[in-house]
Specification:
317 residues, alpha/beta, TIM Barrel, 9-stranded mixed β-sheet, two-stranded antiparallel ribbon, 11 helices, 11 strands, globular, binds pyridoxal-5'-phosphate, binds iron/sulfur cluster
Length: 317
């Protein structure tokens, strides 16, 4: 059973934090409320209001400030949304937003204003998506994203994946999910067996921003995936006050690798309204990566990227 914390006072009590922190907090967040799994809260340091895990999920008053250049649809996704639920921005791969929500609401999320309600995958829409993919043989890879696609039950996932297996020009199934980190118990035997039985190569891209997010349950979930032949990569977002130091980035890469995954992308923050207080400048990002290169092997250096509306791929910085 997924246990979530959605009340601020409950979260603060669990962390032995004083209630006056509530004044720093922005209460009317009906659209993007506090939401964090208990499993994740347990990895936070008690008594530390600056805990890097807490910072990622705690709503704060800065979110209400409007900052120039920080907009509701920074990636221009509404334009790329040809069929509801399907994004085809880059050559050879399409992204399907399978679920309308996540187990966690990350405060910096670039999809925090995304109209998920309009993008639910109904049977008809799925048929439309399949037709779109079938008609375009340049598409090799389907990416399940969200929201969090692993909120979809195993039985349903199996049937969706089965449909994709039947499209002969597809080679790869990729799943972008924060669940292996947030609620690793979701990586069930049934799910893993489904992936290991596929004709398609499978890739899971996890989302971990700080070494402290990885505990033994996360390591177990990732080993399970790896033992079934899944390629496991990690993407992180460069966040002020969370991982904007070379020490934290080094620890993160090493912890990711020790858990069995390879660092993939380090995303510069998308300029989404409400997240400006997490912004780290591009120059600073470049400097951090250059320093990291001096400390770890090349395969532990993630590629620093950003998204630009209209670009043909993520843009290497
Ligand atoms: C990020 C993203 C991808 C995947 O890009 P890669 O560089 O292959 O990881 C695909 N489609 C969309 C719409 C994306 O935002
Ligand atoms: S897991 Fe990803 S999509 Fe979900 S809220 Fe966090 S950043 Fe956004």
């Amino acid at each position: 059973m997924l246990k979530l914390v959605t009340e601020l006072d409950q979260l603060l009590a669990m962390l032995d934090l004083p209630n006056d922190l509530l004044q720093e907090v922005n209460i009317p967040m009906h659209q993007f409320p506090l939401r964090v799994p208990v499993e994740f809260v347990k990895r936070m340091q008690k008594g530390d209001p600056n805990d890097p895990l807490l910072k990622q999920v705690l709503p704060v008053k800065y979110e209400n400030e409007s900052v120039i250049n920080f907009t509701k649809d920074p990636l221009g996704e509404s334009g790329a949304n040809k069929i509801p639920g399907l994004l085809h921005k880059y050559h050879g791969r399409v992204l399907v937003t399978l679920a309308g929500s996540c187990v966690v609401n990350c405060r910096y999320c670039f999809r925090r204003h995304f109209p998920y309600e309009d993008n639910q995958i109904t049977k008809d829409r799925w048929r439309e998506i399949l037709n779109y993919i079938k008609k375009d043989a340049s598409i090799k890879e389907v990416i399940f994203s969200g929201g969090d696609p692993l909120l979809v039950k195993d039985g349903k996932l199996k049937s969706l994946v089965h449909d994709l297996e039947n499209i002969s020009h597809l080679t790869t199934l990729r799943i972008h999910s924060r669940i292996p980190i947030m609620t690793p118990s979701r990586i069930t035997d049934e799910f893993v067996e489904m992936l290991s039985g596929l004709r398609l190569q499978s890739v899971i891209v996890t989302h971990c921003n700080h070494a402290q997010e990885i505990d033994s349950s996360v390591v177990r979930a990732i080993s399970k995936l790896k033992n079934s032949g899944v390629t496991v990569l990690n993407q992180a977002v460069l966040l002020k006050g969370v991982n904007d130091s070379v020490k934290v980035l080094k620890d993160l890469s090493e912890a990711i690798f020790a858990a069995g995954a390879i660092p993939y992308y380090l995303h510069a923050l998308d300029k989404v309204q409400g997240a400006a207080h997490f912004d780290v400048s591009i120059e600073e990002g470049r400097r951090l990566i250059a320093e990291l290169e001096g400390l770890v092997p090349g395969y532990l250096v993630p590629t620093l990227v950003c998204e630009e509306a209209g670009a043909k791929s993520k843009v290497r910085l």
